[in-house]
Amino acid sequence: MMLPMNDAALLTPGDYADAVATAVRAAAAYYTDGATPLGDDEYDALLRAVAAYEQAHPQEVLPDSPTGKVAGGAVGGDVPHSVPMLSLDNVFSAEELADWAAGLERRLGRPVDAWCVEPKLDGLAVAARYRAGRLHQLITRGDGLAGEDISHAADAVLGLPAVLAEPVDVELRGEVLLTREQFEHANEVRTAHGAVPFANPRNGAAGTLRAKDRPYRVELTFFGYGAVGLDESPDGGIGDGPGEGEGLTHSALLERLAALGANTAATTAAHPLRCATLEEAQQRVDEIAALRSELPFGIDGVVVKADSAADQREAGSGSRAPRWAVARKLAAEHKVTRLLDVEWNVGRTGIIAPRAVLEPVVIDGVTVTYATLHNPADITRRGLMLGDRVFVYRAGDVIPRVEAPLVDERTGEERPIAFPEVCPRCGDAIDREEQRWRCVRGRDCQLVASISYAVGRDQLDIEGLGGTRAVQLVEAGLVSDLADLWTLTREQLLALERMGDTSTDNLLAAIETARSRPLNRVFCALGVRGTGRTMSRRIAAHFGSMAAIRAADAETLAQVDGIGTEKARVIVAELADLSPLLDRLADRGVGTAVTAPQAPATASAEEPTIEGTGPLAGEAVVVTGSMTGPLAALSRNEVNELIERAGGKASSSVSKRTTLLVAGEKAGSKRAKAEDLGIRILTPDEFAALVAAHLPQA
Ligand code: IVH
Q1: What is the C-alpha to C-alpha distance for residues 252 and 572, in angstroms, rounded to an integer?
Q2: Above 70 in pLDDT, residue 417?
């Protein structure tokens, strides 16, 4: 059934019954270890649609409806909880969070004393019972009233000590999950034992906690966020239901948990923060959300809690969730879609990499159509088939990847994935020695394409070296990498077909001119994955020299605007691979220009970067429409270079941060947007006058 994502009120009575049935099925899978047929966003949208329908038709609410029930009413257990283990209500935007907070303050009749903002860990809630400081029993949340005994799994849970630092009777509550590293490791171990890999970390945590007698061990991690019995109040205080008396603030409780030896999010970049105002809390929500893709574990939201015990006590709890805490949900990083095809692409180094073609799916605002499949062995390990419904993961600037098929959803129409017999680019043999297949010709397989790219207008701009000329040079054995261009002699060129005196001289002159191209052009010419023209300009400006770029580690590279940790790692690896070529280019004086770096290559993230100087210092500039006057001859990349030479920052889309739009003829939606936002707009001529001193010499 297709569901309206935002238009919850559209359900008809028939749709409502279907929606309840789908949600019950999805909740059962989600809270046990099946593969849910829905992604998290779709499940949340489904529940909102069901709840909206029920609000409008209260007399028609079906008894098995998941609304108002912990875990959607899907699971139970036989170990009663001392104090119910509640769920959380969700909000989906800053506005909804503000409304929720206002509602809470209305209820209290006073402002909330302080907030505590912390990550919403994407795992499974557990209660760990300690007697005299010794771990005695581990229980799942179940339906919130009773859970399942999973004490057999306790040993494998890091961060949940067998013995606490004090001999207390206490029940720690928190989330058990697989960190990204534990997830990768778990899947390696599983596939080595012939088991199907886990679809995603959450699924893996659920399966691992329940599993008994596995022939291998998978470690998990506990993060505590609550406790029963710590503040000595009658019903155990903060955690799931605050008690009488003063009681601990939530932030103090988290400190107590850590002091007892339990792991908490305090050790992570997304550490809980006490915030005096809702504005500060909103800011921390945004910070934690921004950190998401860098965290070593998955989060599906940020939890905002009233910090003081008095506020919690007076707000109280409903049957499903406390009124003093709420989850600000973030868009899911996992989505379910269909695998339509697998393409095989040959990389610059000759690696033959499979790429999934997907039914387009929006993940956190980005439409994903392709995803990596790593290598052929990985496809086999995951047991993927064409036509499968698959889990796709994308976070931040991480390349989307296909994680696993939903085997239960198969229709019988699925087809096996065909592996190539020969290199799909050049038809030569494939080297299958390693997990990653490679064309036996290695880099040479792609040589012509790499050279043609490197000499293009926005890179080294060597006129007269188009595709056919590059083929000629490679086939004649004159060029076996980019650096060979600067060894070409007049005689060698004249000996080639269709090369006369004039074209030879012109080509040699163009190659000579290219020797002194600025760093950003030379870097761009290398074709390092994930670095086009814009990124190359930023990297060049940041480091100032090829030597500094080569010396940078992933952490240093990640300081460049727009480079996340994953991309930084790829760049470092590619540069290491390109090291011999870079040495040869340097020997020939290519890319050796040095400029003052805009940020010291060794600067830490806290140190301020040196602001650009020039007429555009501090300006964020977007260029649109066709350029006229002195700018007419420049490519868009050259205009962007000009902006950066003049001290500004070039970007391609208009946003609130844009300070200046250069609008040429036929400027369209960008101009309209800039007008809406009240951004300063200049014609190409006005702009040229402003940056006249930085225009390229004709
Ligand atoms: S507080 C009464 N804090 O999210 C308070 N829950 O969707 C209930 N969760 O059942 C829990 N991180 O399993 C709390 N920092 C956090 C959390 C968290 C993850 C889970 C927990 C809860 C579910 C609700």
Answers
A1: 42
A2: yes
Please name the helix (run of DSSP H) or strand (run of DSSP E) that holds residue 170, with its range, or none. strand 170-177
pLDDT digits 0-9 by tens, 69-101? 777 766 667 899 989 999 999 999 999 999 999
Q: Which CATH superfamily is domain 442-514 in?
A: 5' to 3' exonuclease, C-terminal subdomain (1.10.150.20)
Grade residue 13 by pLDDT with cuts at 50, 70 and 90: confident
Task: Indicate if ligand 1 lies below 6 Å from the C-beta of 574.
Answer: no
Q: Which of 31, 120, 140 is the pocket-test mutation for ligand 1 (most atoms within 8 Å of CB)?
A: 120
**Tokens 């001119």 sit at which residue?**
513
Which tokens go with 24?
């019950």
pLDDT tens, residue by residue, 169-224: 999 999 999 999 999 999 889 888 888 888 889 989 999 998 888 889 999 999 99
Active site residue 120: yes
Which tens digits make up the pLDDT trace of 217-232?
999 999 999 999 986 4
Ligand 1 centroid to residue 560 C-alpha, Å: 35
Give the model's confidence band at 442: pLDDT under 50 very low, under 70 low, under 90 confident, else very high: confident
Distance 587 CA to ligand 1 centre (A): 59
Adjacent-strand bridge partners of 355: 343, 372
* Closest ligand 1 atom to 240 CA: 2
Contact 53, 10 (CB under 8 A): no
State whether the beta carbon of 325 lies less than 6 angstroms from ligand 1.
yes
Domain ranges in the chain?
A: 5-73, 79-329, 334-431, 442-514, 605-698
Q: Is 641 touching ligand 1 by the criterion CB < 6 Å? A: no
Report the candidate in 568, 535, 531 with the shortest Cα–Cα distance to residue 552. Answer: 568
Say whether pLDDT at 592 is over 80.
yes
φ/ψ of 12, rounded to 5, equals -90, 170
CA dist., res. 538 & res. 644, Å (int): 9
Please tell me the CATH code under which domain 605-698 is placed: 3.40.50.10190
Burial code (b: 16+ CB inside 10 Å, e: under 16) for 2-26 equals ebeeeebeebeeebbeebbebbbbb
Q: How far is the CA of 116 from the centre of ligand 1 (A)?
A: 13
Residue with the smallest CA separation from ligand 1 atom 10 is: 87
User: Of 120, 329, 649, 670, which is the active-site residue?
Assistant: 120
| CA distances to 447, 538, 586, 591 from 515, in Å | 20, 21, 10, 7
Report the relative pairing of strands 157-158 and 220-228 from DSSP bridges: parallel
Q: Is the CB of 481 under 6 A from ligand 1?
A: no
CATH placement of domain 5-73: 1.10.287
Query: What is the structure's pLDDT at 666?
Result: 86
